[in-house]
Amino acid sequence: MRELTALFWAEAEKYQVLPLLGEIATVWGFPKESREQTKFVYYNGTENIASGMIPPIYNRSYSISADLYNPGRSALGLRSGIAGVIVAEASFLGGFSLYVERGRLKHTYSLAGLKLDTIATRDELPDGKVNVRYEFTADRPGVFGTGGTSRLFINGKQQAEAKLEHTVPFRFAAYDGMDIGTDNGLPVVPKFEYAKVLPKYFKGTIEKVEFDLGAAKPSAEDLRRMYLGISSLSCVEAWIASIRWGTDCGRFWRKRKTDEHSDDEQTYFGSSNRGCL
Prior knowledge:
Layout: H1 2-14, H2 23-27, E1 39-42, E2 62-70, E3 84-91, E4 94-101, E5 104-110, E6 116-124, E7 128-138, E8 148-154, E9 157-164, E10 178-180, H3 192-197, E11 205-213, H4 220-258, H5 265-269
Antiparallel strand pairs: 1-11, 2-7, 2-11, 3-4, 3-10, 4-5, 5-6, 7-8, 8-9
């Protein structure tokens, strides 16, 4: 059986049938090699980009470049200057955010909610037109969850560098998308200043955000692990969703029992509990 299993994966790689799960695999960041693109451009106000349309930054080197306009602070302090999220994907349970806080460019990476890695530039962004860039250089491109080096640049000049020991090997979440100029849903950075103090929408101007992806060709073993990982994660997400659904149903029926004639039932019921009927 072990020999047959090994032969199956070897032949699957040879005849290019990997990754398995067909179109579902693209949701988790593994587009088919034949149609994979390496450049993606987005513009300000693009929100809730679906999982299958997000650049697959996993297991490879990549860069995120943004052309901005910084209005600067006013002399009397009536205008705070540039601030907010440039681009963010998913949440603190796994995701990343490139943003400006107190005038400095920052990048935070969440490793499945287990660890937050943040780097920041030494200098504040200059007034006027400015280009900012985040670069990740993978130690071993194509290797599942490879570590690497993060760097931040302002107008082509390197401002920060830090080691990222591990990365998430496939899509951060199948249910949480990517936003330009904001961070919808659960925040990537679970800290007060990011989630509450930063403006909901970017202050300044985002001309465009461009992703440039390096080459990445996972091995047959990594693709096999991806297949098993997706299967496991799908089961876990379904299990979590069922628990949430059951909890919501329980709340609804308890309220209905104690307040059977209330006019507020429909308001309490809400869209997230419709399955309880």
